[in-house]
Amino acid sequence: MPEIVLLSDPRIAAVPVEECGEPLVDLRGVEALRVDPRLADDAGAYAHVRQSVADLLVAAQTRLPRELRLLVVEGYRPVGVQRRYFASSVARHRAARPDWDEERAHAEAAKFVSPPEVAPHVTGGAVDLTLCTSGGVELPMGTAVNATPPEAGEECRTASAGVSREARANRELLIDAMTSVGFVNYPTEWWHWSFGERYWAFATDARHARYGAR
To answer: Of residues 3 and 188, which shows the higher confidence score?
Structure first.
C-alpha cells in the first residue's frame, strides 16, 4: 500500500496559498446532484462549495452509471465548526485510551479529522459524499460516511481490504468518477474528496493552493 500522507504532515501546511477569490455556491440549487440534510446547519454552510468544485461534481456525476447519483453530505465547514470537530475527536480518543497523553491523542485524531489550520473543508474546496440510487437509497460502501476510529474501525480507509466485494466495487465507481475530473481523495476516508486546497495541491504537485480558509 502506498504511503499515506496525513493532513497533519508539515508538508501540507508548507504549501503556499494564492487565493483565487472564487465564490461559494449552494449545491441545493444544482439539479444534477443530491444533497443530504443529515449535517445541515441553520446557515446552510454544509451545502456550499467553491464554484469550480460544484462544476467538477456535476462533471463527476456524468461519469457514473445513469441509475446512480452522487449524494453530498457536507461541503464548506466554518473554522469554528472545524475546531469543535477536532477537539471532540481528540477527547474521544483520550476517553477510549486513557493511557494516551494529549500528544498521542492529537496525532491519532489528525489521521481522520483535520487540524483546523490546514482543514480542506474550511476552504470550500472539500466535499464528503457517497453514492445512492436515483431513488435515494445509499449504496453499501463498507462503512457509513464519517465512521472513523475510535468508535469505528479502519474500514474507513479508502483502500481497506476489510470491506465486502460489493462495497469495494462501489468504492471503485466513486473513485473512478471523482479522479477522472480532478478530485483528490484523502486516503483515510473513502468519502472525502477535495480540489484546489492545500492537500490537493500537494498531491498533484501544483505550485500553490487556489483556496484558503473562508
So the answer is: 188
Q: Which residue, among 184, 116, 191, 98, has the nearest Cα to 147 in the 3D structure?
A: 191
Give the DSSP H or E segment for 71: strand 68-74
C-alpha distances in Å from residue 202, one per residue of 11, 60, 64, 147, 168:
8, 22, 27, 25, 26
Sign of CA dihedral 76, 81, 83, 84: negative
Is 54 exposed, middle or buried (CB count within 10 Å of its CB: 0-12, 13-18, 19+)?
A: buried
Q: What pLDDT score does 151 carry?
A: 87
SS3 call for 113 = coil
Map residue 120 onto helix, strand or coil.
coil
Please tell me the pTM assigned to this model. 0.93
- And the C-alpha cell for 79? 473554522
* pLDDT tens profile 168-212: 999 999 999 999 999 999 999 999 999 999 999 999 999 999 999
**Bridge partners, residue 129, by sequence:** 72
Spell out the residues 6+ positions from residue 208 whose beta carbon is closer than 8 angstroms to its own.
Answer: 15, 16, 17, 18, 201
Q: Which residue has the cell 452509471?
A: 65
- Closest of 68, 31, 63 to residue 181, by C-alpha: 63
Closest CA to 197 of 87, 137, 123: 123
For residue 85, the model assigns a pLDDT of 82
Any idea how long the chain is? 214
Strand partners, 127: 193
Which DSSP symbol is given to 150?
A: T
